[in-house]
């Protein structure tokens, strides 16, 4: 079986690039002795990828309880469910042995009252403005958690708005300092803080110091995408996951071709619209993953149609690969990866866990 | 089981609204004697919905070969696979008994040469600028198809850019006239044209005449969404499918709450950005589907987080329903519908076929 034989659209995952991306992040975190990498499986959602990214059933992060179940069934025991927990979800999280996060007094009280073996981290906000209390308010939540307190948790998602290495270093230091200060405040109050967890792919790679931090979370670095390439997380040649597609129409009058990777196969993510280079809905590569078509991008998407312009000279049924803007969103439309390793030969099919 | 018990996020489908939307379209098409409704299952992708929309295994339209397989297995025999076919996909389409569409001389030659019982429609472009040859070139493709010719096919997708009833009527007439002219040109050349197929939900509802047309395709009308409501396809109260979500964080300093319906559960579709009212990534309704929260919309989405603003006053874990911008994209992230009928009681779970 080769890429010429697969039904399209489908996902292609290049094992060599994946391994290189994993090694790059492992090296970046290893610069900080004592700091553990807790890979975020929200991007790959795959046991086979987790075997490489978190070998020996090492610590992982998950974004849904469906992921938690899938990885627990496969043997991973040390998981953080990294989305604010509701009282209604505690039972399922406890049954799976997940650590949970909270920034809410009522949720913290429910965790404290839950009969299960739950442990929780206090989510703080270091500038993203999504979830989390200000570091100064972490102690109040921690006191409600009482003996269930496991530590401090933050995510510098605003690193995605950074555009230079200096800016990334600044955001990484803001993330570190906020988490460290919150942990210190808890310890000063006599509380035991085992875990101080932070991360995003850009800050994990760019952090100059992780003093006071016990672990780093990152996920998108495994596959990479057109947006991360522009943040400097990796190079354009380091995008491990692409969408294999076929030419389904030719429109010479419009200097365009249509492919069968549309809004469902690619997602409607337009993150590169705010980046230095706007790739539309994706960059067109050849079937071998090489940039043979110049500036050809997916300019428009319908549900099952993608319009490519300027048009590569391709026959009906010819195959291309499309590098995604945002790999997490693109991967989620598909149920498996077709694994290659630098050639067209498909050496494996790896499943994913979608949904909730 | 009620909506208070379901894990979130998940899809809720209101059967009463669905039935009303189906009757509305059936009535609109019945204004045109002799014209058949061929519902497009790309939105619902569900056997249970197809039983209502195309009862008695009536003709349907599909957007993927996975749909074609799923509906064929369930008993639907008369299907059009409404995305330009490639030579590589002919075998699977033929095995399923699908009619296919093409606008390409090479694909048409492959159809003519295929040993299977394939029949094909010539796709023409009546103004959308996506797939299809100009009506004047349909004859050239039809001649290549030879005895495999089934008819003429078009889709006035540019109706989505229409904003008034008068404009919709104009686009509908353009669609009808283009398809009719192409069919007439084929008949004038002595070819048998059995099917003249057109449609989009807006033009199907607004067409004043369908003279010369044998069938109408439409799909999104079944569920409706915030974008279609602004096109006049239906009212805001006619959105049958919503996403049930839970409050996972409260941010009074930002006048916002976070819910567990983010970019994956809702999709990143921003179609209402170009509509009179921009609903962000969705409109927040109460758990009963009522507009109790004024102008509260999903202003930002992360993978699993949705930010709602202005913030409804809700406890952690409280439930809301989110009306989607584009129901086809939203539904595709989920594997089933939780069916209600005007109350919170879940009276059924209906599966979907995702992927390709």
In a few lines, what is going on in this structure?
2 copies of one chain form a homodimer. Chain A is an alpha/beta fold and 356 residues long. In chain A, 28% of the residues lie in helices and 23% in strands.
Shape type of chain A: elongated
Cα separation of the termini of chain A: 32 Å
Radius of gyration of chain A: 21 Å
Instruction: List the chains of the largest interface with their residue counts.
Output: A-B, 56 and 57 residues
- Per CATH, the superfamily of the largest domain in chain A is Alanine racemase
Just give the CATH class of the largest domain in chain A: Alpha Beta
What is the chains' assembly state? homodimer
Structural summary, described in words:
Chain A has helices at 15-30, 47-53, 65-74, 90-95, 105-113, 138-145, 165-188, 201-206, 226-231, 263-266, 327-331, and strands spanning 10-14, 36-39, 60-62, 79-81, 99-102, 119-124, 149-154, 195-198, 215-218, 241-251, 256-259, 283-286, 297-301, 306-309, 319-323, 336-340, 348-351. In chain A, helix 5 (105-113) packs parallel to helix 6. The first copy, chain A, is an alpha/beta fold and 356 residues long. In chain A, the strands form two sheets. In chain A, strands 1, 10, 11, 12, 13, 14, 15, 16 and 17 form a nine-stranded mixed β-sheet that branches. The first copy, chain A, is built from eleven helices and 17 strands. Chain A folds into two domains: 31-223, Alpha-Beta Barrel (TIM Barrel); 240-351, D-serine dehydratase-like domain (Lyase, Ornithine Decarboxylase, Chain A, domain 1, Beta Barrel), CATH 2.40.37.20. In chain A, 60% of the residues are buried. Chain A is elongated. The mean pLDDT of chain A is 97. In chain A, 28% of the residues lie in helices and 23% in strands. The interface between A and B is large, with 56 and 57 residues.
């Amino acid at each position: 079986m080769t890429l010429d034989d697969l039904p399209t659209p489908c996902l292609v995952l290049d094992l060599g690039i994946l391994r290189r991306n994993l090694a790059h992040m492992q090296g970046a975190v290893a610069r900080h002795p004592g700091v553990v990498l807790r890979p975020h499986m929200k991007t790959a959602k795959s046991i086979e990828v987790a075997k490489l990214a978190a070998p020996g059933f090492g610590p992982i992060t998950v974004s849904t309880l469906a992921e938690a179940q899938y990885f627990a069934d496969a043997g991973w025991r040390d998981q953080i469910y990294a989305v604010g927990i509701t009282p209604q979800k505690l039972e399922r999280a406890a049954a799976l042995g997940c650590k949970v996060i909270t920034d809410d007094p009522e949720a913290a009280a429910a965790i404290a009252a839950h009969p299960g073996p739950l442990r929780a981290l206090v989510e703080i906000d270091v500038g993203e403005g999504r979830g989390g209390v200000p570091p100064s308010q972490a102690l109040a939540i921690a006191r409600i958690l009482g003996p269930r307190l496991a530590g401090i948790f933050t995510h510098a998602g605003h690193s995605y708005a950074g555009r230079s290495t200096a800016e990334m270093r600044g955001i990484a230091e803001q993330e570190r300092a906020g988490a460290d200060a919150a942990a210190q405040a808890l310890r000063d109050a006599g509380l035991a803080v085992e875990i101080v967890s932070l991360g995003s792919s850009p800050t994990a790679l760019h952090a100059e110091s992780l003093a006071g931090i016990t672990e780093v979370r990152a996920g998108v670095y495994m596959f990479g995408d057109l947006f991360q390439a522009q943040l400097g997380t990796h190079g354009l040649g380091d995008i491990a996951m692409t969408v294999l597609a076929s030419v389904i129409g030719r429109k010479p009058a419009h200097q365009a071709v249509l492919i069968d990777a549309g809004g469902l196969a690619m997602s409607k993510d337009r993150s590169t619209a705010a980046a230095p280079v706007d790739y539309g809905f994706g960059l067109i590569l050849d079937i071998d993953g090489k940039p043979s078509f110049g500036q050809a991008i997916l300019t428009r998407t319908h549900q099952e149609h993608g319009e490519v312009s300027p048009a590569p000279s391709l026959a009906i049924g010819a195959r291309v690969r499309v590098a995604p803007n945002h790999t997490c969103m693109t991967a989620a439309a598909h149920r498996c990866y077709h694994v290659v390793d630098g050639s067209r030969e498909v050496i494996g099919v790896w499943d994913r866990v979608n949904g909730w």
